Prior knowledge:
By secondary structure, the protein is an alpha+beta fold.
Amino acid sequence: MAGFVVILGGFWGLCILSVALLKWNEVRYRKKGLPPGTMGWPLFGETTEFLKQGPAFMKNQRSRFGSIFKSHILGCPTIVSMDPELNRYILVNEAKGLVPGYPQSMLDILGKCNIAAVHGSAHKYMRGALLSLISPTMIKDQLLPKIDDFMRSHLSDWDSKIIDIQEKTKEMAFLSSFRQIASTEASSVSEAFMPEFFKLVLGTLSLPINIPSTNYHRGFQARQNITCWLRRLVEERRASGEKQRDMLGLLVGGENKYKLSDEEMIDLIITILYSGYETVSTTSMMAVKYLHDHPKVLEELRKEHMAIRERKNPEDSIDYEDYRSMRFTRAVIYETSRLATIVNGVLRKTTTDMEINGYLIPKGWRIYVYTREVNYDPCLYPDPYTFNPWRWLGKGLENQHHFLIFGGGTRQCPGKELGLAEISTFLHYFVTRYRWEEVEGNKLMKFPRVEAPNGLRIRVSAP
Ligand code: HEM
């Protein structure tokens, strides 16, 4: 009996303490002028609910507080905006003090010169340097031939095999970028480089706790190894004096009008590898999934790619004209990005106290520009949960201002065309060479950014 009373007392004590802590945290943030919302637990806020429930958490809070609300997620007090007009305003007004607000672990591991860490003129310069490497002319003359060559070999021996498509598309996104960056060294270095890069990616998505065995610690060490390799590569290139036709060649050789220090060059290379990695791999994997589930779409896509092959000899590569002619493929990629919402939103932070939509947002608060809901708006996309690539044909949907799959404003994705070229070339060789059926992996895996099939495995065969 006495034991029961102690347990009951302890339980009540815990309940009272929890309520007091929650209340205290609410009161702490009850500043005048802030939007409505809940702040959760001291320190952790509502991070657990946010990570566990994903989009359902956002929907629930919106139904309680409206499309602009406050919360405390990923270690920071945050305003979530699900309001399309306000989202647009935030994206185009970086100059008013609405700068990128990515987590500390990401900034530490990607380096202080990475594009998300720099603002104003420094951002303009780094972005210019990046655009000079991935401009349409560069894609046409240098990058597409490399992408084509890589995809052919990456997809050369899938016949009669069971393929883990998630794993393969991840390797594809990394190795294809690495070839574009350092063509000559890619085959010898990438085997050792790839596991380190994967550790780096995990580290950027973790809490910044620097003790052995944390993902942050491993990610940080991986960054050190990667920068060490890249520094050596830069020095070897400089010492050899040879002109190489790849991104590193352009950066190290004196011809580019953008002159970067070694540190800036290394951070830019890490940015290119990182930014195109999860986006390109997840879109490619989800396209395979949707194509499998929608045979009519697959048939139309295959028709487009077979027509390209018929104009060519079997060993001819895809050129820029072929890529530009892939109208239906582009529509398939947009529809995949829309329906799977590859990027749920982007993060900003305030550099001064400011008034937005009648609310007073304190300096240093994060703003989560949540763009996911727009993708399922039935006024913009009738029957929004249906996979229908035809909706993208001929209506200029990609030029409308609610199209935020690649972000918007001054930070709009500079790698859009490169990403599309990579995914299109992958799909070209995949659908012209193979047929496939799913053998495993229909369960959905949820993580903050996208809902994806976990370990989707397919049995591949020649047509
Ligand atoms: C399907 C593929 C892709 C999608 C859906 C995508 C999406 C996005 C989005 C939504 C942003 C805006 C981030 C923000 O506002 O904070 C962004 C920015 C960026 N993307 Fe992409 N991206 C893709 C492919 C690529 C590729 C292949 C590269 C390689 C160079 C790349 C490089 C970047 C960079 C460097 C930024 C930051 C730009 C800046 O801060 O000025 N992206 N991307």
